[in-house]
Q: What sequence folds into this?
């Protein structure tokens, strides 16, 4: 088909085959131009699929141009594919279905060009589940280029995936929205398609692999502006980004990513996202495990709490290794870089860095759980109140070649130990941190325990150098034994006088 139009047809699914405009039972149908529009498949007990085009298991549709638009049915408003669908160009827009407004894929769908959706409300494919594309159980979608944009759904504004979805190169999933889960991609099994208001970008419960491309400017009413993951998401490249406007949130929780299972990030970036409440970049919830390694980067995200990462998983973990970095995130409350929740576990090792984040408290890291720093750098972070580098109210362990330097706060320029928190400083360097009142290097409050130094252990060999504070007793040695402290020229006080 290179020109002309197929339009205004109606199929009753219980009496005829699917495919309101075109039915491809076998062989190959090639579309380089023309229009397939305003066709309908109605159901009186049949499957009601393929409002515009239906492709059977031994058939192929090759689309390099033309438009499939304004078609309607129950499953696959624009196209239902059970065979092979290759899209290198053209537009699929303005179609409507209960599931899969644009494309319903039950076979193999290869997308290397073209647009599903568009830039205006009239271009949007709409559905209850999967406004743009639905990838069914056992199906495979490979997206190397092209755009899925501006689509809307209750679940999965851009993509609803229950199979295998691979995204790479210059592929773009952008500007999609969901009134519930998955504004960009809803990736789950059918049993998980239920109530809730989560997932602006991607909600995953099967397999989503991202080695390139962009997931950008997607929105969710509640959780996961970019990605909502409930099974397996592997990110080796590409970017998950917001619209760059910190006054416009991508989600309430997890502006970039909301994870409840296994999210592994070995490369790429999560940046420029905003959450109204928690986790501007990432929200990791029980039983989620979030792993950052390689050159993975989380930067320039915003939230009320936890600008970079909110680790709120009590049975999973958050681990940073290799050269992964969290930087330049901003919050109005606690945890500019990382907020580690109650009973949660956060481990930092390798050449990782948490730098140049800002917060009220704990600009680099706020930890209400178990934070182990085996190595890496926490530097250049600024807290309006306490804990420029780290604020802890639980267990903090610092060892290896760890460096906490160049951070600033009112109290505890490097580290602030509050509440029932304890700090075990086994090795490393705490240097050039600044407090405008107490504790240039470390400040320990006297809350809950009779002796502040019961909350702090510093081993021989730990280097304290160049830390400064305005209050005199914050610049001298600790006032109460027992304490093994560093034997360096400048040691910031560990506790207030009593």
A:
């Amino acid at each position: 088909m290179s020109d002309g139009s197929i339009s205004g047809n109606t199929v009753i699914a219980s009496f005829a085959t699917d495919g309101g405009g075109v039915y491809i039972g076998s062989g190959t149908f090639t579309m380089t131009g023309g229009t397939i529009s305003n066709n309908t498949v109605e159901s009186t007990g049949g499957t009601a699929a393929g409002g515009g085009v239906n492709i059977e298991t031994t058939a192929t549709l090759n689309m390099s141009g033309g438009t499939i638009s304004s078609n309607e049915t129950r499953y696959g408003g624009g196209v239902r594919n059970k065979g092979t669908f290759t899209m290198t160009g053209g537009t699929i827009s303005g179609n409507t279905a209960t599931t899969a407004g644009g494309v319903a894929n039950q076979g193999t769908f290869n997308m290397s060009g073209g647009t599903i959706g568009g830039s205006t409300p009239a271009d949007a494919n709409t559905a209850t589940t999967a406004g743009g594309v639905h990838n069914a159980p056992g199906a495979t979608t490979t997206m190397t280029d092209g755009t899925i944009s501006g689509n809307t759904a209750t679940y999965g504004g851009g993509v609803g995936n229950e199979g295998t979805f691979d995204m790479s190169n210059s592929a773009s999933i952008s500007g999609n929205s969901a009134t519930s889960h998955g504004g960009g991609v809803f990736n789950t099994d059918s049993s998980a398609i239920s109530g809730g208001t989560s997932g602006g970008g991607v909600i995953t419960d099967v397999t989503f692999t991202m080695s390139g491309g962009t997931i950008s400017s997607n929105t969710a009413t509640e959780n996961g502006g970019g990605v909502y993951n409930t099974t397996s998401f592997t990110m080796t490249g590409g970017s998950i980004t917001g619209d760059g406007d910190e006054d416009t949130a991508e989600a309430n929780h997890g502006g970039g990513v909301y994870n409840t299972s296994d999210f592994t990030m070995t490369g790429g970036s999560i940046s420029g996202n905003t959450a109204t409440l928690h986790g501007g970049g990432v929200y990791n919830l029980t039983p989620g495990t979030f792993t950052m390694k390689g050159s993975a980067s989380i930067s320039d995200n915003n939230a009320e709490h936890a600008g970079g990462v909110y680790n709120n998983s009590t049975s999973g973990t958050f681990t940073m290794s290799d050269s992964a970095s969290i930087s330049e995130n901003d919050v109005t409350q606690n945890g500019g870089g990382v907020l580690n929740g109650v009973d949660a576990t956060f481990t930092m090792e390798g050449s990782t860095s948490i730098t140049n984040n800002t917060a009220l408290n704990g600009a680099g890291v706020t930890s209400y759980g178990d934070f182990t720093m085996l190595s890496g750098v926490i530097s250049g972070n600024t807290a309006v109140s306490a804990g420029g580098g780290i604020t802890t109210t639980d267990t903090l362990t610092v060892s290896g070649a760890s460096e906490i330097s160049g951070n600033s706060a009112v109290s505890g320029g490097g580290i602030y130990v509050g509440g029932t928190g304890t700090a075990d400083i086994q090795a490393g360097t705490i240097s050039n941190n600044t407090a405008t009142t107490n504790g240039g290097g470390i400040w320990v409050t006297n809350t809950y325990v009779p002796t502040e130094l019961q909350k702090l252990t510093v081993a021989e060999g730990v280097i304290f150098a160049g830390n400064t504070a305005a209050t005199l007793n914050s610049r001298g040695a600790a006032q109460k034994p027992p304490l093994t402290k560093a034997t360096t020229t400048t040691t910031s006080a560990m506790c207030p006088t009593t």
